[in-house]
Design a protein that fits this description.
The complex is a heterotrimer of chains A (about 300), B (about 280) and C (about 270). Chain A has 11 helices and 10 strands. Chain A is α/β, with parallel strands linked by helices and about 300 residues long. Classes of the chains: A alpha/beta (about 300), B alpha/beta (about 280), C mainly alpha (about 270).
Chain lengths: ~300, ~280, ~270
Amino acid sequence: MSIELKHVSYTYSPGTSYEIHALKDINLNIPDGEFIGMIGHTGSGKSTLIQHFNALIQPVSGTILYNGEDIWGEKYNRKELRSQVGLVFQYPEHQLFESDVLSDVCFGPMNQGLTREEAEAEAKKALRQVGFKEENYKKSPFELSGGQKKRVAIAGVLAMNPKILILDEPTAGLDPRGRDDILDQIAELHKVRGITIVLVSHSMEDIAKYVERLIVMNHGEVAFDNTPREVFSHYQELESMGLAAPQITYIMHALREHGLPVDISATTVEEARATILDALRESHSPLLKKEGGMGK
Amino acid sequence: MGIIKAFKLGFDYLKYDEDGNVQDTQRAVDDVNLDIEAGEFVAILGHNGSGKSTLAKHMNALLLPSEGTLWIDDMDTAREPELWKIRQKAGMVFQNPDNQIIGTIVEEDVGFGPENMGIPTENIWRRVDDSLKKVGMTAYRHHSPNKLSGGQKQRVAIAGVVAMQPQCIVLDEPTAMLDPNGRREVLEAVRELNRQEKVTVILITHYMEEVIHADRVYVMDSGKVVMQGTPREIFSQVETLKEYRLDVPQVTLLAHELKKSGADVPDGILTTEELVNALCRSN
Amino acid sequence: MMRDITIGQYYPADSLLHALDPRTKLIGTICFIVSVFLFHTFPGYGVATLFLGLLILLSRVPVKFMFKGLKAVFMILMITVVFNVLLTPGEILWKWGILRITKEGLVLAGTMAIRLTYLVIGSSIMTLTTTPNQLTDGMERLLRPLNKIHVPVHDIAMIMSIALRFIPILMEETDKIMKAQIARGADFENGNIIQRAKNMVPLLVPLFISAFRRANDLAMAMEARCYHGGDHRTQMKPLVYRSRDFAAMGALAVYLGIAVMFRVMGW
């Protein structure tokens, strides 16, 4: 089970003065069960790329294989593909339309041919898994808060039982707590359902905290494809692409420059805390009080 | 007295039933007192639904208080005859860049405010030239707003307000829909206006990194001002902020965690340099 | 695909046509449309073609933008042509079963095709060289006499200019909503008319809600920028007729005169 892109290129408005080469010869493999992050500044091609994954956009050249089959083959059932490869867009407002939450989440499963009862069972399961409270099932999706709308939108795709879930900036516009809640929920989904997650984000901090593999898009090409640790060690190159590493990376480098022997590959607060404490201990720093917290 | 002052400000959203009777009231702003000096850079933090946007809309008389009073430069916002003067004194920039640009050409949009104020034509041009320069958008003056990036659109919106020559600018989550580069662009433009032009800035946001340069921070929760102080004072209280559904910049969080683990680091560290100095002073 | 509609899409360039007063261009467009109906012979259309060609040259807008507007009406154009060719009685040139092509049919179809094409291109030249704001300014000024009979000319003009600004935004939004629903298994292409209409609900509801929201936001933003109707309002770009406008009007008068002459003389 995997998505494979071979030499995929895409051009917007070919032959006009607005012509944009959005993707240039992309080769990628998305195997089962990974938690993948994708970053790139606006216009780097990442939105175009994820829409290729579920055949919303047809490449100008190259092939896209899902489980070894060409998704633009003559007889290929792309509707079926879209229920296997779920895509949640950035703004829940673009998909919510029913008068109550439960019916809205049923829309996907019913398009798959399920009866209302079967669809409701899937919808309830999905809503539970995104942490949406049952007492709100009958509420109108339009009176929900931003974070709740986002959950309903994710559930709307999840209810179709996708094997791969792609989320385009699921935290945009949410406050810090709402952001953490949603991301924790997505990580939980990854664990419980074992599905592949592709998380598009602008926040390096979130990426560093959650993903196993990081794809960096730049000018329609894959600039990096590796573990976050490895990618963030190229922070100067990231900057030249209009991106940045997490703040922690900069702190680690600054500390090392000033003589503190920390592990510069730390990218999260947790990792940074551990390596700084080690370094302080090693250099017998007077900053560490003898009594407190040495053990952990 | 400061340029923006609020005394026991309260605001209720009213819910009506089908017959048009008031069915329910929801307190969005509750007993807020403010005193903002001319030239200050003030940030208002709060999670979604904390009442910060409702408060912001009072500063431009888009909403009028249910209780208490708000003064802009000594003018009571509830007084109808002063309405247009108030809106000219306290300009407002909103969250969604697409929904506040009226003109189909950048320079025409920037001229919209001055046109409404009845400014003579030559002066409008001077103001437009001037404000576009202040936000660094002169090169795009003949462009269509639809072809600009989010950060550029927001800078156009800011120029549109600057052209009205306000004494203060209220920005209601101007960066919420932007990518990191757009956010940086907008914030730099705003800080520049505050430093160079001495425009009073009220920045409403939930991005913690944006408030470290503010002179003063107010934190709102369920309609009330629950914390106020310098960024350092506010960010020293990591746990309290978390209770209000907010967080702190990563460097502040790291310092806090180190302190909890027994390292002797001061509270309220705001920048990488401060942390480096604190950790490496003995080496 | 939706982005290709040129109506209301300004093409920035530095040309004589761009510099003309919008009122001149509005009047000019009306004159050109009238002329297309005055001409009724192929030499006449030759004159109109020359005039149109000259305008395209003067506008400095790439020709392909002119023809883009045609895409939107291409189907109407084809249907008109086919019906006229097949259904006009007259001298039969070719016959197969009940289908026949007559000389009159060909002439009529040609005439209709030319008129429709020229109408679209003619008005595209105006919208490509005039910003929607200038256009509405121009209309507002031309229609100002209607104020006396209590037609809210300023308000109508403002509504139009806002509509023009939001058309591309809503087009793009439609595209995004469609994709979001297709990703959930929605089908906008198959089924009979009733099913298709039903299938539009998941597209139209989010679109309307978004449009209302935008309208609400925009109203607030306009109020915040001191908008309070057309009274006491000054203009950044007040409309002034310049010598080039008088020259253009003169040229138009000559062109219209020629059109009238062709009609009267039956050329």
